Inverse folding.
């Protein structure tokens, strides 16, 4: 299967490369060489990579340093052409854009700090409930379970089903954002964790926030969700699969939702939120504050519970290498 796939592949696209560890890029390089040309980087494939190194760093093994891909052997052997994308699609608010740019530069002005301090304790509009972004998974779980427990409605549990090799199923469960056990009630705040398209038209996307308004008893009690934009969906189970040319090797099936009163900053990476209640008092790693603040489209959509100095910090290695990348992009 891999021989056939590599034979008809000319371009390899890797998104969110900031989260890719150096040793994993080296592994991809070795596999590509095995099936293509052993004497060329990535076997001669054209590799297109996109991402933002100022976001959260790659997660390594226990005791292993967070190694960005530019420290890999594969990166050093590539003939790299750098292109900076200058157009902003998530933020149109100049004040927030300026804050984010200052964080990237490692020099957050007093004016920007004051702008953020003014958002501490700010109240969101009545009838709205933005998702909370927190630094630790335990905090998110505690908030979600506490809020669900306050709802005096019957609970419905949806259990993930699986099929296939135990190792591959475990891999799918670890990478899938949907929980193995999803407990919902009427009024629960939820987030879609998968994109759904019908005839190439987007129905809902990963990160869409809404509220459970009903359970469709005519369809096995499937949850009915109204998004914050007023769209209503009966949410059907979705599959996450690993397959080859012979068929599906492993599959997990679950309702593509998770409780969303609170989300970790790590899980929010890649999402676009119209508003968020953000607690940055316990930031513990480079890039965490930058990722949390950059999820939101405008400063008015940010409701801060608190912020610490670590929230403004970015990895010095990234700041240094960003200058090198910019130099390469201009050459």
């Amino acid at each position: 299967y891999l021989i056939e796939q590599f034979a008809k592949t000319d371009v390899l696209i890797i998104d969110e490369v900031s989260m890719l560890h150096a040793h994993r890029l080296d592994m991809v390089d070795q596999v590509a060489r095995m099936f293509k040309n052993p004497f060329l980087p990535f076997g001669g494939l054209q590799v297109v990579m996109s991402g933002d190194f100022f976001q959260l760093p790659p997660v390594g093994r226990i005791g292993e340093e967070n190694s960005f891909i530019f420290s890999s052997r594969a990166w050093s052997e590539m003939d790299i052409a750098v292109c900076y994308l200058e157009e902003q699609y998530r933020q149109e608010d100049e004040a927030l854009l300026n804050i984010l740019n200052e964080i990237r530069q490692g020099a957050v002005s007093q004016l920007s700090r004051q702008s953020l301090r003014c958002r501490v304790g700010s109240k969101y509009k009545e009838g709205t409930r933005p998702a909370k972004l927190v630094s630790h998974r335990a905090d998110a779980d505690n908030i979600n379970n506490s809020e669900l427990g306050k709802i005096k409605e019957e609970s419905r549990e949806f259990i993930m089903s699986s099929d296939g090799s135990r190792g591959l199923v475990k891999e799918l469960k670890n990478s899938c954002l949907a929980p193995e056990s999803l407990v919902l009630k009427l009024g629960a705040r939820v987030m879609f964790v998968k994109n759904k398209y019908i005839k190439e038209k987007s129905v809902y996307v990963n990160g869409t926030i809404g509220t459970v308004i009903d359970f469709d008893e005519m369809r096995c009690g499937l949850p009915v969700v109204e998004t914050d934009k007023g769209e209503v969906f009966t949410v059907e189970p979705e599959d996450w699969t690993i397959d080859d040319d012979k068929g599906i090797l492993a599959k997990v099936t679950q309702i593509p939702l998770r409780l969303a009163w609170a989300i970790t900053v790590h899980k929010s990476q890649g999402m676009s939120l119209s508003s968020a209640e953000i607690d940055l008092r316990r930031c513990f790693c480079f890039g965490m504050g930058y990722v949390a603040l950059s999820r939101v489209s405008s400063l008015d959509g940010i409701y801060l519970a608190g912020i610490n100095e670590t929230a403004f910090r970015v990895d010095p290695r990234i700041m240094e290498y960003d200058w090198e990348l910019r130099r390469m992009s201009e050459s």
